[in-house]
Amino acid sequence: xxxxxxxxAPLQRADRWRVAEWAFWLLPVLGxxxxxxxxxxxxxxxxTALFCLSLDLILGYAGIVSLGHAAFFGLGAYTAGxxxxxxxxxxxxxxxxxxxxxxxxxxxxxxxVLRGADLTRLMVTLGVAMMLFELAxxxxxxxxxxxxxxxxxxKPIFGTxxxxxxxxxxxxxxxVVLFLMFWAxxxxxxxxxxxxxxxxxxxxxxxxxxxxxxxxxLAAIYTIGAAYAGVAGALMxxxxxxxxxxxxxxxxxxxxLLILVLGGSGSLYGAMLGTIVFMxxxxxxxxxxxxxxxxxxxxxxMLIVLFARDGVMGGLRTAAARLVPRKLAxx
Amino acid sequence: MTVLFxxxxxxxxxxxxxxxxxxxxxxxxxxNLAHGSFAMVGGYVCVTLLNKAxxxxxxxxxxxxxxxxxxxxxxxxxxxxxxxxxxxxxxVLFSLALVFMSMSAMQYFFGAQQQPLNLPDFLKGxxxxxxxxxxxxxxxxxxxxxxxxxxxxxxVSGTRFGAQLRASVDNPRTARGxxxxxxxxxxxxxxxxxxxxxxxxxxxxxxxxxxxxxxxxYIVYFLIVVAVGGSGSITGSLVASLILGVVDVAGKYYVPQxxxxxxxxxxxxxxxxxxxxxxxxxxxx
Amino acid sequence: MSPYALQTKGLVKKFGGFVATNDVTLNVQAGARxxxxxxxxxxxxxxxNLLTGFLEPTxxxxxxxxxxxxxxxxxxRVKRGLARTFQINxxxxxxxxxxxxxxxxxxxxxxGARFFKPVGAHTQAVQEAAELLHTLxxxxxxxxxxxxxxxxxxxxxxxxxxxxxxxxxxxLDEPAAGVPTSESRELFASIAALPRDVTILLIEHxxxxxxxxxxxxxxxxxxxxxxxxxxxxxxNDPKVKEVYLGETVHG
Lengths: 331, 285, 251
Hints:
The structure holds three protein chains of three kinds.
Chain A: H1 9-13, H2 19-24, H3 27-34, H4 39-61, H5 70-85, H6 91-113, H7 118-138, H8 140-143, H9 168-190, H10 192-202, H11 206-209, H12 214-240, H13 250-263, H14 269-284, H15 290-307, H16 311-323
Chain B: H1 2-28, H2 35-51, H3 57-78, H4 88-110, E1 126-129, E2 132-135, H5 136-158, H6 160-170, H7 172-177, H8 182-208, H9 214-229, H10 234-254, H11 261-273
Antiparallel strand pairs in B: 1-2
Helix pairs in contact in B: 1-5, 1-8, 1-9, 1-10, 2-3, 2-4, 2-8, 2-9, 3-8, 5-6, 6-8, 9-10
Chain C: E1 4-15, E2 18-29, E3 33-37, H1 44-52, E4 59-64, E5 67-68, H2 74-79, E6 82-85, H3 97-108, H4 123-135, H5 151-163, E7 169-173, H6 181-192, E8 199-203, H7 207-213, E9 216-221, E10 224-229, H8 231-235, H9 238-243
Parallel strand pairs in C: 3-8, 3-9, 6-7, 7-8
Antiparallel strand pairs in C: 1-2, 1-4, 4-5, 9-10
Helix pairs in contact in C: 3-4, 3-5
């Protein structure tokens, strides 16, 4: 028998909020005061961050490669948009219905996605997104087609906070939703369910041998990821009061993938940081020739894949390990 | 009937471009989303030779194929090679990066507009039979594609290279053990796949048009062919391409309001029931 | 109630024209230390895969504690008390040793679907995992990442993951494979120390270990059972000696 007693503290402390995390979540507050003229941009960053978070859940944690995640974003956007443009302008219930719709679609497609190897999965996720895109494109009388869905009118949140022209309400609305959903996702990944999802990604063959129903777990996380994306899409529709057809496009799915990889998948904060870096860069370089932007984006992605696979989070972890003598456990 | 004919022509073009993707995926287990970029390169080479250098069209085609093959070899040896053992996600990301870079590069050099292509006179026009109008160019396309399909199949099943290729697909470890230079097979196969893509891209300018957005516009179709036909199967690619071509053309002709929806739906349904595709084996990973 | 913890009846597995498992009827007594030996390619791992449900049989049945489990999926058989180790480690490279074993214990306790309370707060699971680590002398590496450990230690984790399921029947696929002889004794000591109410079926090539450990030996050749008996019977069986041409059989 070993005389070494195991220190359980690291495991028990694993989900405690770190100082860096508290600091990070002060950013939305700072942003409001430091960039009062850019609230619309910051709101979009928050929404995209939530969208990216949803992809991190299914890709970074569960290892499901999806080229069609925009399907859930778009479905959420159109759902919330249609509700509002047909008289139901209450924001929170709009979010809930959008989450439900995307969740249901996620659940149904999870049954398809779980069959077959990587290429098949890729194609099914892509195919579903393309199908939705074509539907939205053709059903112009519902979605507005290429012209987009207009006439979205939002009622005040809780009956008191009306959506203003400057975007203050939209800003806080999005930030609060983002934070709450992030908090919930963080709980999820630190739970036994979250651990089993990581296990599936790390060694899918071992999990059934431990008694884990792999397909059921994957279906669950995929559904949750879809619902999260749906909420992000709904926020987009509600805050911009417009739904463009490109919410369902391949470009949106591909760009999201890039953002997540840039930030570093599998840590939730990578999704946050990747979004901030990407969208800030896009904003600052917005008068750059689009050809240059796309070219250097591609070059950067290639460099990341070849040399810095863990993205910004990976870089931060390496830096932290060098600066701080004690090894910090990853979030 | 004309619709059927046009669908077959469309399918054969699709086959030409996609077969390279099918073989490289089956051989190297590499998910290459940039395959459409190779076709695009072939298209631009052809158009440049034809319009700027006055090279006759029929000579442009093999030159485009050759140029694309060279690009393919260069990229394979320097970049693709590093990612053979990487996860499929990394391969997707890498090839996506290539797509972005190739698209913006082409836009930089050639502009965003469609490239004009003037066919030689002997390829213009139609043969009109009762109930069936056959475009001469489409006939040409079908003939060339069939020849190539036949040649490919003969090469894979009849030649030594083909045998080594099949061995490397089935079991790279054992193939190496028997003395087959698997790395060289990979490079040659990649070159061949790129050449075919380039040829297809060049021949496709007349039917699909050519602009920098080509890879993204059509990659889904190529992937559908490979996923439905089964990676690594030439016959599978041919059958899948023909089905896809006919369904797409017929769909757009008879039910234009539905558009490409049918294609995607058919693909998803087919993959649900046969995840390995029509002719493919279950993938190892 | 039969005395058998694990049985197969006429188990057949064909891959196309190739018969990997040829009409195998195997009976493993409850509490036995039953070894499965045979030359390379005899189909031993295929048999284990059929027993666990990783492979579907072409014909025949698998019976676990008198229940026909032939139609059940892998994870369902694990819930009924069947666990296995793999010939080549299948571990969670990025997880620490403690995390890996906690993951396994969670599944046994049915906590795998809990999504709110953090892992560390489920004290019963964590304690159980810690005890298992102690038992297998992995306590000192509890917080090391699996991929940074030596192969011998990783092999112990492989066993810990199977033991976490508290199986009634444990299938060990070449547990000592790749482990230096000096460490394999210790490995087997851990296995031998398992309580008698756990039935063990193991595949092993190391005849020394087999004859030291097993009370029943089945010999598998070309997918079919050649013979079965006690170590003495097997050691003196001329058919077995013939099959192991040139290999020294412990006598």
